[in-house]
Structure formats: structure tokens, C-alpha cells
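FW: tagging you since you asked about this chain on Friday. Here's the raw sequence from the shared folder, copied in full. Didn't touch anything.
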Amino acid sequence: MPTTKTRRRRRPTEAQKARSAASKAVANEALHAYAVTCLSDPAEMEYFREMAASVGWKADPAEPGPGYSLLNVMLLAAQRRPIVHCGGYEYWLTQGSVVARGEKALATFRALKRAGDVEEIADDEQAPGKRRPRYFVKRGTFDVTQTAPREKCPHCGTAPTGCDDTTTRCPDTCAVFALRPGLKPPLALVNALMADQLMDDADEDDADA
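HL: got it, structure written out here
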């Protein structure tokens, strides 16, 4: 009877661990700065809720279907505003668009897949004895505002000059860039998420003291 060999996962090198830690630190700093902005300005807070509705936020990251955890929506917004509709490079090709030349991918939290883990993750308090989800920061997400049409835009009529044109974009006034209607996350939930970012930093400061 044939046996199936299982491949062992390679352990990350010290250099890889250092890069991962640096990426997490940058992401957490961005979250902290954006939390301060939103908590001190009601208009910014409301704008975030509108963007979350447009992008498609999920209360449960493990829930099937498209969308992003609220923490990841916050991380995306911390890197670029507005965010309207997000996806990976290949996703935009299927939508008749292409990532415009010179645009940089946005980072999101991704979980290291493991039995029982959720899709994305965070450092929330876990039940005693429960293993904390392991996650990393990965760049690979682009907003629609970072794309250019591969064919004539049905909204504004903008068309590429050729099949290799990745620079001709729709004007900022094009409807494709407008925030999409959707269910906004509850204000109390957003306030709690933002406050958590400040608490996490305070905990780290205490640990370093």
C-alpha cells in the first residue's frame, strides 16, 4: 500500500523573523496614528465608517465570501485614503482593470494557516490556555483608485491607448471611484477598535519600562 509523504514546513530564518517583526511594527504604528486621527475628529471617524461600508467589512473574518476584517479595513485606510473597493492584482485583471504603473501594494494582516485558526488576525485577548493566532503582514492589495482601465470605462469613457497602457486612468470624478453604499460598522464597535490600538501601544510601553 503506497504511503504519502508529508512535507515539513521550513522554519523561518532569523532574517525572515526580523523582516516580519519590522513589518508588524510599521503596521501597528500606522494603526495607532490613524486611530488618533479618527478619535480626535468625528468627521474622520464617519469617513472611515463610510469607507468600511464601501470596501465590505466583516465582523467575523472567518465568514465565507469577500470582504475584510474591520481591523484590516482600518489598516488599509491608514495607508491610503480613500479606499473604495479593494482586491489583489489578479482580481483587478478579471474586472477589466490593471494596477496602474508606479502604484505600491497595500498591506493587510494574514494568518498563518493552522487547524482552528481564523482567516485574519489580531492580538486580542484569548481564553486561558488557548493558543494565540499567528499572523504576518503581507502586501498585495490594491484599491480601485490605484487602477487603470484595460478597456473603455463604462462610466466615463476613458480607454487605454493600447494593450500595454497602464498609465491612462479615469478622472477622479469617475463614478468607479465613488464610495459604494453598504452597511456601516456600528460606531461603538469602531470606537472600541480604535481605542484598542492606543491600549496596545500603552501595554508595549509598560512592557519596555
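FW: The chain has one domain: 18-124+132-203.
HL: agreed, and Residues 18-124+132-203 form one domain.
FW: great, closing this out.
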